[in-house]
Amino acid sequence: REEDIAGLQDVKRLIKNKVMRPLLRPEVHRGLYQPSSGILFFGPPGTGKTTLAKWIASESQAAFFCITPSTLTSKFYGESETLVSALFAVAARLAPSIIFIDEIDSVLSKRNEKEEESTTRMKNQLLTMMDGLNTPDDKFIVVIGATNRPEALDDAGMRRLSKRVYIPLPDAESIAQQIRAILKHHAQSMDIPFVDDLEWVAAYAQKLVGFNGSDIRNLCMKAAETVLLVGGMAGTGKSTLIGSLCHTLQERRQKRCYVINLDPAALHFPYKAHVDIRATVKYRKVMKKYNLGPNGAILTALNLYATKFEQLLAILKQREHEFDFVLVDTPGQIEVLNWSASGAIILSLLASQYPTVALYTMDSSRCAKPVVFVSNLLFSTALNS
Question: Which residues form the AAA+ ATPase domain (predicted)?
């Protein structure tokens, strides 16, 4: 479906005009109106070239043949040419048809004297079949090739793939659309509420510019996988997990991190446990602003912010040459809507001065909530950046 393809508005508009319309009304597109029977999708890997081809077939109700290089090659003499002929014969019988050849540069690479005779014969047969498409007696067949190396294609193959469409990496807006689509698609199975309230996605998408569509989907899968693997409450190996994550960053990405633990049970910067700050002016203003009721974890974070945050910044300033970013280990029981009143104050101030990643670990009954999904997206980004 078109809504499943994030961004690429110009590409989709071109495909509708130049590809889908002829497929839907082949009787009109004849003579000088006859469109190209060969289309080349090229661009960086993982940008959705195969998905676009499937969308074309679905929307135009055309038979779809997804071909890989191995499909058309055989060790037996003459069988590769027979496979090519059979493919086009079946496509003609089921027309309108789309023949999608992934990694077409492997099938129609530049010919040279050193390549095997069987490979040359297969290429010649494929070129011959592509050249004879859509004569007045033929039914409509479109060959779509996909590659991230258009310069490797044979000149004769490029001539037959006369319509060329560049599929770029997604911009920030397209990335945000893809993340929203993934969250909404899996909202029920992952118990993700408030899928329409995703303002954070636009800001987060800016961090992923340069990622392709496949990278973004893999990032979401890693986040979901981390949610399933981590129980995270006290006594379940949380400290071991954090140490392992830090080690992973240092070994794989040569990035040093400084861990700040905001869990009430193990604060790096002790506070007076019996000091009740609910009566202070600062606390009342914050509680009124965010419409929050008393909460032990929120009080802890506010107490830390009110009494020790300047000390925390001073220590970080002294040691900033020792780390590349700050990893904040938050109290496991704080969910995103409550955490915004306390932890977000600390995180935003930290992030304004140092690259900061928040690590949330939750109990299994709430392990698929947005707070975990978002935080693991952030951490996966750190691992892959």
Answer: 35-171, 223-378
